[in-house]
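Deviation from plan, reported transparently: magnesium ion complex.
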Amino acid sequence: MLADKNEQRTSIEELGEFGLIKHLTKDFELNHKSTLKGIGDDAAVLDFKSKKTVVSTDLLVEGVHFDLSYMPLKHLGYKSVVVNLSDIYAMNANATQITVSLAVSNRFPLEALEEFYAGVAAACKVYGIDLIGGDTTSSTKGMLISITAIGEVDEEKLVYRSGAKENDLLVVTGDIGGAYLGLQILEREKEVFKVNPQNQPDLEPYSYLIERQLKPEARKDIVDLLEKLEVQPTAMIDISDGLSSEILHLCEQSKVGCNLYEEKIPLDPTVISASEEFKMDSTMIALSGGEDYELLFTIAQADFDKIKGNPNLTVIGHMTQQSEGAHLVARNNTKIPITAQGWNSFNAS
Ligand code: ADP
Ligand code: MG
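Because the crystal trials were delayed, the predicted structure below was used instead.
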């Protein structure tokens, strides 16, 4: 289960910086009309005509944001792109270009970077993204990745975190909590492996959870779906840190409160069974787990009929007056204040 050790090890220094960039990026194609110039000059050139441009960037540090002992480099390349695209889709925009910047220590051979770029290429293909530049440098220790994603959107389609109104419905896509449990399983197996490297764990029962952690997808399909359904969300955010923290962002920026219904939170059956195995509360995991990269948005009640019954969308609550605060309405009907860490069970009101 540990990341593949590459057989061949070509030192990066053999190629030189320019040779390396050329080698890693030679197979990338440009497909967007808005990309006037990609890799190869001092700067890329873009033209979005009458559309608004959205830009988002992330910095990922080895040992802080990812662990290469169970994260294969190809998956890391894919995930690094996907988590950035998720931020663009959370603006209700279409992602179009990325830049990829890397710092690597001499521990990484060329073959490792090829794997990483294979993952970047796969994500570019799946999501229809042009790689238009980046930067490459050395680090004294470990790997750092910075990706910037760029997208375009008609001004009237843009969705901020700040537009939710009292009585709007709170909607989440897909199901949540899986990525956090996938990480718990990988961490557990890493410890087992340390003690006995011969032990081959059976991870098949956890394949959905592990995939949610190692190969998340961004909800480009939801941006397309909302357009097709003619639903314009009033506020939107992507779920990178867990439901409770994202709900609090929407509430704070929109100046509203929220009632979130515990019984409505969409959980995959394997999330429920793995929660029991880890003796954790599945609601707590959904609220504070994170890394699911689903979208959380609000819509006017008048739009409910348009989304009703869609298997991708679950109404999990509604927005209230700001003075009412943000609460989880538990299965037993008690109201528990939502905190950034999840919920505070000592503060039931
Ligand atoms: P500069 O010295 O002006 O920073 P570079 O030699 O670093 O230029 O980059 C040359 C070209 O290669 C630029 O178009 C840059 O965006 C691109 N590039 C550099 N590193 C990467 C990378 N890791 N991935 C993709 N493109 C890159
Ligand atoms: Mg450079």
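The longest strand covers residues 94-104. We consider this an acceptable substitute for the interim report.
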